[in-house]
Amino acid sequence: MNRPRQWLRTVCLLFLVTGGLWFGGHMVGRVSAVAKETYDNIEVFTNILTLVQKNYVDPVTTKQLIEGAITGMLSALDPHSSYLPPEMYKELQVDTRGSFGGLGIEITVRNNVLTVVSPIEDTPAYRSGVKPGDQIIKIEDEFTKDMPLVEAVKRMRGPQGTKIRLTLRREGVANLIDMTLTREVIQIRSVKSKMLDKGYAYLRITQFQERTDDDLQKQLNKLEKDSGAPLAGVVLDLRNNPGGLLTQAIKVSDEFIDSGLVVYTDGRLDSQKQKYFAHKANSRTDFPMVVLVNGGSASASEIVAGALQDHKRALVLGTQTFGKGSVQTILPLEENAAIRLTTARYYTPNGRSIQATGITPDIVLDNKLALTKTEGTPMLPRIREENLPRHFQQPKGKQAPREEDDDGEEAPNNEPESGEAPTIREGELGKDPQLDRALELLKSWNVFKTVVAQNNP
Question: Has this prediction a pTM greater than 0.85?
Fold first, then answer.
């Protein structure tokens, strides 16, 4: 008998023996049954390990096979659980600090093919014309079918100034698209801001990182100083925000809510059942808000949108969000590796799970996307959580109904009568129908509030 099999059998036998010594009566039978099932399955695994090492065309190490087995085991659970070898674990830690060398592209796996969720603004991928929904067929000369997500990320990252060739498939385009991109140090500024009009501010959060809340406070203070008066209204733009740190989503929500529940998580262990509350100190509740979302708004951004919506602190405008309602915990391993494991679901203050469903806007308004002569096709429908294999199902329960627009129907799409689709530039007044509508709502709210105050002295 080879050493790996002998070692694993010894561990299982020790578990059986100690289980029998520790527990008594009926519990012994239950533990022994579970232990026997575990032992039987481990024996199958060790048999396969032995067969592969003995018969595979090239020599393979035990470590290589074990890491492959771990990768397969976690990927079989859900789309967000994965094994992080040392280099990927290190890069994950770098990501949350907002600086890394790469292309600036958010990807997922759909039907075993790497698929673009969204390019990050002002990055090589964004400037090169990578579109949401594009399938990455090859990285350099290697096909990506069945390539693990972490491996694909590893290959696309690299030192600043180095080049990489991607081959993309885009729906509606007959030929594959080859593009060569030059890696840059991706400095993600997580909060951007500007004044839209007198007293009306625009805040865009691109990703939730370690300093997002601090940056948000600084931007709000700057906007108020530039305005010279208290803000009359704020548009919070969470479109194409893939999420990030749960702690930062809670802190950002706390900026605009002065009491009550922000979000809670529920899992199998007591440590995974957590409630997070807002605090009155330094909360900014003296101006109306509109939150912009779309199919690229996921995870932490959905927490913020859901909290502000449930507290009736803001109107949510846009399209259905991505629907990632699960919590991932990073569990470090030896040799600087780790696993990212889904450990809980999160819920909005009113008890809504957005898993595979998303946040439904109060006002549904979809920016119409322009066709250009070079593209020849509109952007593909966005991939959402429900499209990913092995995604969690929505827990049973009632979804809060969506408040419809003033006339009981979805908001108009502002499509010009000529039939020509407008050029959309998100964040730019006059070229972003969702932003235009948000500002219109804020101004209308303040007019309405003034009229009510005059009639009720």
Answer: no
